[in-house]
Amino acid sequence: MSTVATANPLMPAARVAAAEPRRASLSWGTAPLLFFVATGTAAHGKAIETQPPANEAVAPHQSQTALVSWYEQKAQIIRELGPNWDGYGADPIASDTIDNMIQLLRTLLPAGSLQGSLVPAADGSLQAEWHLASVALGLLLEEDKTVSTWVRATGSDFEIEKYGPEALQLFQSVASVALA
Amino acid sequence: MCDPTPQDYFSNHRTDDLGIGPQDRLLRHCTTPVQVVPCPLNGRKISDQAFKPKKSDVGVSVDLECLLAKDGHTWEDRFGVMPNAVGMIAVTVASARTHSAGVAYTPKPAQAELDGYLQKPNPYHGEIILPMTNSQRRDLFRSAVQLRLLAS
Fold first, then answer.
1. Are A148 and B31 within 8 A, CB to CB?
2. Which of B34, B46, B138 to mutate to test the interface with A (most CBs of A within 10 A)?
3. Residue B87 needs a FRET pair 20 to 30 A away by CA distance; which of A53, A146, B77, B142 works?
4. pLDDT score of A22 more than 50
5. What ipTM does the predicted assembly reach?
6. What single string gives the DSSP state of each residue in chain B?
């Protein structure tokens, strides 16, 4: 499994340049963040290491008055879920799954994007999802770090689903239009 | 038709039970508001994430509505039996069979070693048999009827 010390290679350079000054300083620690983007299965995952950008001032997806983004607020609720939180015996959601989802959303969502939902499941997965008038969009992060995106026109049975890097590209493309 | 054959709740093996008719319905509770999401049609709905079992499970737990009916009960009688219920959805057995490995009747015995509601037996317990891909699960969920969703 290779480790790449870089900005997100899936984000076009122009978008990176536009997004970098707006990144949050809230969750960037002093240590590099490491998360794994799987290409279908965790066994084929690629590690991507990112460094906190310098001179950060404004967090993404926040108003000037808000201190925490919507997904960080919802993530906090999920962190507090205890054993059997779903009534069917579910275990709590792993903190690294929550942290990785926050990092994905911070990287992939356009600034000032529409608020969505962050929904845990009994299998340890976490899904960011939006159900809009014209489209439904989901970013699913499994406990084993497998990431997938699904998109569907509202009311349609036809769904596009991608895994791994393609999932991140698809999510970012749709989000830039539908959620901006 | 409602003549299912009980299968061992603790076994890791399940077989599709044709004694459960295709038009019979399978009921699943949602017991947490964190699985309820905004939607443009009805304002709020249950997320498809509520249709995922634990990784160690071999099926998605449901109640067999036809067995409730045999005992003179309706889904409304069943709603709220699970603590903290916020909603309930139903799918047909036919839809479950289309998107999964089938449907099994697995009556749940009492389990004194567990906590709270999980200790209780459930004679109506069945399962939608795994595996299901994420896409199949969402397709199945889209076929679901939302029977009840409490106001937030």
1. no
2. B34
3. A146
4. no
5. 0.92
6. -B-PPB--TT-S-----TTB-TT-EEEEEE--GGGEEEETTTEEEE-GGGG---TT-SEEEEEEHHHHHHTT--HHHHTTSSTT--EEEEEEHHHHHHHSS-EEE-PBPP-TTS-GGGGS-BTTEEEEESP--HHHHHHHHHT-EEEEE---
**A84 — pLDDT class (breaks 50, 70, 90):** confident
Whole-number pLDDT of residue B90: 98
Residue B4 region, left (φ>0) first, then alpha (ψ -120 to 50), else beta? beta
A71 forms bridges with which residues in the sheet? none
Please check the confidence at residue A66 and state whether its pLDDT lies above 60: no
Residues B127, B58 contacting (CB under 8 angstroms): yes
Q: What is the CA radius of gyration of chain B?
A: 15
Q: Which range (A27-41, A65-79, A82-96, B99-113) has the least confidence?
A: A27-41
For A121, the closest of B37, B52, B82 (CB atoms) is B52
Largest CA distance in chain A: 46
Closest residue in chain B to residue A82, using alpha carbons only: B32
Find out whether B105 and B14 touch, Cβ atoms under 8 Å. Answer: no
Spell out the residues 6+ positions from residue A126 whose beta carbon is closer than 8 angstroms to its own.
Answer: A78, A93, A97, A98, A101, A118, A119, A120, A140, A141
B111 and chain A: CB distance < 8 Å anywhere? Answer: no
Q: How many CB atoms are located within 10 Å of the residue A92 CB? A: 16
CA distances from B145 to A133, B10, B88, B94, B138 (A): 20, 29, 9, 14, 13
Domain residue limits, chain A = 3-51+67-178
Residues in chain B with pLDDT values less than 50: none
A82 Cβ neighbours under 8 A, 6+ residues apart: A92
Q: What is the largest CA-CA distance in chain B?
A: 43
- The type of residue at A179 is L
